[in-house]
């Protein structure tokens, strides 16, 4: 398999991952927007902000991944630029973890985390 083919397959996978992530973010947003439950209605805006804030680091990771696939297609699989791109992907993942933890702490402090309601 040629490097251009591998690059195309990687780009196809990157597009697929981006579309799947967007579908998950979108469906989670629709749950909040479509719900008529008063408990959820009061939490819509903070949770929508939290959900879409977690998408920001993911976009950066997708961009770094695309650049890496581009370099592979050009025949530069093991180059310093790809190492920097992998570092960027790692930092995006770390940023996503920080956003998730901070968001959950903030939502807990605001008493806007979901609790199991038993009837």
The count of β-strands is 0
Number of helical regions: 5
| Helix/strand class | mainly alpha
Q: How would you describe the shape?
A: elongated
Helical content (DSSP H or I, runs of 4+): over 70%
**Compute the gyration radius: what is it?**
19 Å
Beta-strand proportion: under 5%
Poorly predicted residue ranges? none
* Biggest sheet features: none
Distance between the termini: 59 Å
Please write the string of helix (H) and strand (E) elements: HHHHH
Mean pLDDT: 90
Question: Can you describe this structure?
Answer:
The protein is built from five helices and no strands. The protein has helices spanning 3-34, 38-41, 44-53, 55-73, 80-109. Helix 4 runs antiparallel to helix 5.
């Amino acid at each position: 398999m040629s490097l251009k083919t591998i690059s195309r397959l990687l780009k196809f996978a990157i597009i697929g991952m981006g579309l799947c992530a967007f579908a998950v973010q979108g469906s989670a947003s629709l749950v909040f927007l479509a719900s008529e439950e008063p408990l959820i209605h009061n939490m819509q805006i903070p949770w929508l902000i939290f959900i879409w804030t977690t998408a920001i680091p993911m976009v950066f990771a997708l961009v770094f991944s695309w650049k890496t696939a581009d370099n592979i297609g050009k025949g530069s699989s093991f180059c310093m630029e790809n190492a920097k791109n992998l570092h960027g992907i790692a930092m995006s993942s770390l940023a996503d973890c920080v956003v998730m933890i901070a968001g959950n702490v903030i939502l807990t402090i605001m008493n806007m985390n979901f609790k199991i309601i038993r009837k």
